[in-house]
Amino acid sequence: MRVRMTGLAGVIAIAALLVGAAPASAAPGDASAYGARLNVTLLGNPAVNAEPFAAANANGPTQNTFAGVDLTGILKTGVINASASRDEKSGGVYSRASTADVRVDLLSKVTGKISAELVEAECQATQKGLAGKSKLAGVNLGKLGQVNADPAANTVLNVELAGIKIAEVILNEQIKNNDGSLTVNAIHIKLLQGKLGSIGTGDVIISSATCGPAGLPIPMASGAGLWIGLGLLGVVAAPVAFVALRRRASLNAA
What we know:
By secondary structure, the protein is α+β, with helices and mostly antiparallel strands. It has helices at 2-21, 108-111, 223-253, and strands at residues 31-42, 48-53, 56-57, 63-66, 70-71, 75-76, 80-86, 93-104, 114-126, 129-137, 155-161, 164-176, 182-191, 200-211. The strands form 2 sheets. Strands 1, 2, 3, 11, 12, 13 and 14 form a 7-stranded antiparallel β-sheet that branches. Strands 4, 5, 6, 7, 8, 9 and 10 form a 7-stranded antiparallel β-sheet that branches. Strand 5 and strand 6 (75-76) form a beta hairpin. Helix 1 packs antiparallel against helix 3 (223-253). The longest helix is centred in the last third of the chain and has 31 residues, at 223-253. The model is unreliable at 1-6, 8-28 and 221-245 (pLDDT under 50).
């Protein structure tokens, strides 16, 4: 009898260990997006700081909309939509930002007006890794030339005035952050402070999406994870029970 109880106690102890070791919840990945953000100081003018418009986050709000930005001499847009989501089962995250009817007047005296019918940024993180892309529909870059609707990652267009580089227009900017996440900026305008000339300093970002890395999949203590845990428990418990029964049989025979 003593041997039988010991075997069952071992099974129960193993079960408790497996279930107890399983986390009640996993720390999932994160995702966020916004339509536009500005931090610009033009020569002879006060600084213009505009917080992210239509900001969304996987932790909430997961969707956001803004009617449009209208900053004279800098940026004008139509409707902005942003969303961010998390798949609790897989741990994957996704974010997207779209800005309609974009018109950038910031560099118009040098490049002509930059415009686009739609500017989109997307970012996705799964257990396989991270990926992002940008889409520019009906884009007009003025004197900067032409670009495909799906520009290559980190396409840089230099803006020069009298042979001096005063700004950069980065299309489909993709930044790998220190925390392992990826940020995709569909359009990023950087004003550069040069020694020989400048029209100002700062940044204008249009349609930005950040994601990942992916979080842990479904926790062990619930759903499919529970069945996997019970399966492992069965594999471990079976030999213990078998040994206990053999010992009991030997004692009875004796």
